[in-house]
Structures are given as C-alpha cells and as structure tokens.
Amino acid sequence: xxxxxxxxxxxxxxxxxxxxxxxxxxxxxxxxxxxxxxxxxxxxxxxxxxxxxxxxxxxxxxxxxxxxxxxxxxxxxxxxxxxxxxxxxxxxxxxxxxxxxxxxxxxxxxxxxxxxxxxxxxxxxxxxxxxxxxxxxxxxxxxxxxxxxxxxxxxxxxxxxxxxxxxxxxxxxxxxxxxxxxxxxxxxxxxxxxxxxxxxxxxxxxxxxxxxxxxxxxxxxx
Length: 222
Fold this sequence. Notes:
With about 220 residues, the chain is α/β, with parallel strands linked by helices. It contains six helices and six strands.
C-alpha cells in the first residue's frame, strides 16, 4: 500500500510504501477499548463535591423538643431528610486516573494508527507553509484534497509554529504534536495527516515499524 506525500497544491510528489503484512496484524478491540477508557479517566477533573450535614450552614438548634409534640424527633434541620440539608454519601473530590502497562498503551496506539492507515492517511511535505501563517492557504490545501469537511487530526512538529497557526483556526482540524499523540484523538478523527518528518520519526521509534525503506526509517520513494 502507498501513502501519498502531498505538496501545498495537494499534488502527490512522492509516496511512502507500506508492507502488506502490516494489515494482517490482529486488532485487539478490548485493548483499544481499555486504552480509550484509561485516556478518558485520566482527563477527568474529579472535583465534584457535595456537602454533608456537618458542612451545611445552619441547623445548630434543635427544631423542637424531643418529646411531647407528637412529631418525629429531630436533632437538626440540616439532616439529609430536610430540604436544604446535607447529602448522604454524595460525591467528593477524587482522582480517577490510573495507569496501564507501557507496552499495552504502545500496542493500543499502534493498532489505532494501523486502522487509520487503512483509511486514506495523508503525509504532508515538510515546510508546507514557509513564509508566514495563512489560514486561507491551509484551507485551500484541505479543499484541494477533498477533506475540508472532515474531522482531521494533524500531527506536526511542535516547533513548526507557522504551520500550527495556519491550521489552528480551521473548524474540525485539531493540531497536535507527536509527544501528545493519544489513542482517543487518533480514533476520533476521520482523516489522519502527518508531517513527513513526523512520519519518519514514528518509524524510527518503532511505532510504525513495518515501513519499507532504510534501517533508520526513512521513507522510500518511487
């Protein structure tokens, strides 16, 4: 399979070749699910809080005497059975985050990327926009390759501020650096776009270890 390497005009200038056996790997759906759940749990703020009867203001005085009124005995108007009273077993601030084994997280991310490789992933030429940030040119590029209405995850170098600013204001485009790449964003996007240098770095680090080319992970061209 070939991945297209595009220039600013949306034209194919080169290709990256993928071995066929990369798509024969079994996708572990449960592992993908576990990684997504862990990602969501780690994002939870966990700051919801309710007040117990001891934290609600007021209610210091016994509302009526213990006996002789014919009514049920009450010690405070801040009891959970009273309106405005405390909450019984209500939520308190807590940390929802937990860890997965590093190998499991890495494997899940690999599987997510493999799924996207099957769905027309694009690779952009380095230094796509070199002069100054321009949203107009960036949107024109997306229109020419027919993905301007799609939900796009754009993975570029964090140092490429011109490219980042060019795409940042486009609706449905999320710009992310490779160190922040996570399984939720990969699976949630409709199209995955990678900078050429990012693609090469990912092969060097073994995330896409079955790419054809030289031993250092360089893309092989036609």
